[in-house]
Amino acid sequence: MDLDLRKLRYFVAVAQELHFGRAAEQLHIAQPVLSRQIRSLEDELGAEVFTRDRRGTVLTAAGEQLLEDAVPLLASAQALLTRVTAAAQDTQTLTIGFMPGITVTPAMVAFAARHPDVNVRLLRTTWDDQVEVLQDGRADISIVRLPINEHGLEVRPLFREPRVVVLPVGHPLADRKSVTVADLASEHLLQDPNAVPEWRHVAVELRGNRRPEVPVIHQVEEKLELVAAGAGICVLPLSTAGFYTRADVVALRVDGIGPNEVALAWVAGRRSPLIHDFAEAAADSLADVHPEAHGPAPQ
After folding, report:
1. Is the pLDDT of residue 51 over 80?
2. What Rg do the C-alpha atoms of the chain give, in angstroms?
């Protein structure tokens, strides 16, 4: 049986929304059409992927397995199209993803000296999509901030850099030169506690389910707006905090919080010499332009 990628996309939309109406609206198709396509997919698979009742739509065990496998499969299919289209062009192209605060220019200059005929493009990423852009082919190689899901990727450590806490200027701790993790125990963290495990171990708001709801945040700018408004604090890599300097927040060194690790990542198995040449250029040059770095991350 050949899988229909269109039906898989429809399935993923429903699986992520767990609501046929919202998924149909997202896909710009009529709900009855979507329902028929899902039933057709179930017939082809010989298994039900959703349980539907008055309480709503729920994935079956088969549906959970299909979702786990369908997302990377669809990303790979999109990557195939992107790369084939790029290969058909007269000029070779290398697209480099990078996270905010990381200076890419020295690596680009070193790479361009070896490959002057290659069209180098940059793609700014976020915590949410720094792996996704590799999987779906939007980037050939990316400078990422760990931790990430490394499944299916080659990851090459570059350097580590300190992390700082960002507070509003009127905060009682704002006039200090540095703070400890214990000083932040009663603060509201505007990010996943697992991203700052040292804070998580002492956080008052994590005791007895007292943690206020954290809004969905996709960009550093959104975090800083919330910090400036007094909604909470955030912990950022030093270079990121420096890149987003603003008058209504302050960044302080935190004793007891581990550094952020910066690495290169690309899809495992890709044999493009351009990827490996850029990896060498980045390894030779990027740590030198981040004087705050502690040196290469451990292998």
Report:
1. yes
2. 23
Residue 244: count of CB within 10 angstroms of its CB: 18
What DSSP assignment string belongs to 103-121? Answer: --HHHHHHHHHH-TTSEEE
pLDDT score, position 299: 47
Q: What is the rounded distance in angstroms from the CA atom of residue 135 to the CA atom of residue 121?
A: 17
Distance CA 129, CA 97 (A): 10
Per-residue model confidence as pLDDT tens digits over 227-259: 999 999 999 999 999 888 899 999 999 999 999
Q: Tell me the helices (H) and strands (E) count for the chain, helix number first.
A: 10, 11
Rounded Cα distance between 266 and 144, Å, is 10
For tokens 């990851």, name the residue.
155
Whether this model's pTM surpasses 0.90: no
Between CA 105 and CA 82 the distance in angstroms is 25
- The closest of 58, 75, 29, 135 to 10, measured between CA atoms, is 29
